Amino acid sequence: MTDNDEPIQTELFDDPFCNALDITFDEVEDGTATTRMSVTESHLNFAGVLHGGAVFTLADAAAGAALSSRIGPDASIALEANVSFLEAVDVGETVIATAEVPHESRKTAEMAVTVETETGERVASYRCRGYKF
């Protein structure tokens, strides 16, 4: 990460919704980002496993950070998003979302995110497109 990225990092770390879910930003670099969340009781759904909305938010935060690392904060908005849930996650596990920007045009970008446990078990795949202002 370069000194020029510091305002992006600071803004991302201050995301109120991510803070509410205890999502942290491990790494934000040129077109990539990694976020993580330790699963607690407050992240569970009625079935007692990690809520899909929490997984979506973790992946969405990584995708947004990856794009923001290229174009700056507050310079894009989501156009569409899709998540595929692959495995359930229990309390005590940590999930890590790794995002990249595989395609970018003048006004849009595509982000791809893989969500895994710390042991490398893939739990979700996420793809989205964003509009660049």
TrEMBL record:
Signal peptide: none annotated. CDD domains: PaaI_thioesterase (cd03443). The keyword Hydrolase applies. Keywords: Hydrolase. InterPro entries: Acyl-CoA_thioesterase_PaaI, HOTDOG_ACOT, HotDog_dom_sf, PAAI_dom, Thioestr_dom. It holds the Pfam family 4HBT. One of its GO terms (molecular function) is acyl-CoA hydrolase activity. Residues 29-133 form the HotDog ACOT-type domain. Coiled coil: none annotated. This is PaaI family thioesterase.
